[in-house]
Amino acid sequence: GIDDSNLDDSFSKLAQTRSNP
Amino acid sequence: GTPGLGGGCYVPPKQVWLLAAKAKGLEIAGTFSRRQNQIFMDMTFTNRALTQLSGFAIQLNKNSFGIIPGAQLNVVALNPNQSFDTSLPLSPVGPIQRMDPLTNLQVAIKNNIDVFYFSCIMPIHTLFVEDGVMDKKIYLATWKDISPSNEIQYQISNVTYNTDTISQKLQANNIFTIARRNVEGQDMLYQSLKLTNGIWVLTELKIMPGNTSITLSLKSRAVDVATAIQQSFDLILHN
Questions:
Q1: Concatenated DSSP letters of B64-112
Q2: Which ipTM value was assigned to this complex?
Q3: In terms of CA atoms, which chain A residue is nearest residue B188?
Q4: Taking Cα atoms as reference points, which of B235, B228, B194, B234 lies closest to residue B216?
Q5: Cβ-Cβ contacts under 8 Å, A10 against chain B
Q6: ω into residue B101 within 30 of 0, thus cis?
Q7: Coil, helix or strand at residue B22
Q8: Between chain A and chain B, how many beta carbons pairs sit less than 8 Å apart?
Q9: What gap in Å lies between CA B236 and CA B226, rounded to an integer?
Q10: Beta B152-156 vs B176-183: how paired, if at all?
Q11: Which residue of A has its CA nearest to B148?
Q12: pLDDT tens, B161-215?
């Protein structure tokens, strides 16, 4: 099945990189 | 049905599209709405002439999203000073011709006196479909895949709603939050929407607590829609 925790982590990483201009 | 109820899609107030002085006494005010998965042109026809007006029909010119009437126009014969409300369902399955602005519609109305023409702008959020939730994996891959040079950023000012309300208001207009993260107090919303013609748009909203200016970043393979999409966020978040 889909590893949701991995996806969650990916969104967190995306948010991290995007939060600082 | 009352426009706007059901889906909760934002319905702008009706505007006068056709002035009686320019149409031998026929006045048309209208707006666009989306309910039960369908777009509607909600109009009020008023007879400001001294004789009866009858035999109404409508035609739309080719437009960017292939919008055509989904039914015949239903307007009764109007006596002087009489008004009639009608809701014309629209379908996005017609011939396509790019318009400027993108959602401009050119309309022809016929009655027993003459044929009259006007144009109006469809708010693009009426073209956001109900199945616009992008799969999270696909979102992440697509966001990565679209080059940063194709990302368009806007500031939306004077947004007085909190993150939950922002998300709910957008969702009521088929802009779906698929992920939400908080980084050092800043809320980041990852959202998707799909237009009736199958174009997907990925957005990110940065919301700082205590700051009424929020940042909208937008990625799509069809950048032409960006301005209209930004205007829809602006409209929805100020109503």
A1: TT--EESS------B-TT-EEEEEEEEES-S-B---SSTTEEEEEEE-S
A2: 0.82
A3: A15
A4: B234
A5: 140
A6: yes
A7: helix
A8: 31
A9: 15
A10: unpaired
A11: A18
A12: 999 999 999 999 999 999 999 999 999 999 999 999 999 999 999 999 889 999 9
Using DSSP bridges, classify how beta strands B176-183 and B214-219 pair: parallel, antiparallel or unpaired: unpaired
Q: Can you tell me the distance from the alpha carbon of B171 to that of B232, in angstroms, rounded to the nearest whole number?
A: 13
Amino acid in the structure at residue B191: Q
| Token pair of A13 as six digits | 């990483």
Q: Show the tokens assigned to B137.
A: 């994996």
Residue whose C-alpha is closest to residue B116's, from B16, B14, B18, B15: B18
Distance between CA atoms of B135 and B200, rounded to whole angstroms?
Answer: 12
Give percent of chain B above pLDDT 70.
97
Which value, to the nearest 10 degrees, does the dihedral of the CA atoms of residues B107, B111, B114, B116 take? -20
Q: Are strands B152-156 and B214-219 parallel, antiparallel or unpaired?
A: antiparallel
Gap from A5 CA to chain B (nearest CA, Å): 12
Which structure tokens are listed for A2?
């889909």
Token readout for B183 is: 């980084």
Rounded CA-CA distance A2/A6 in Å is 9
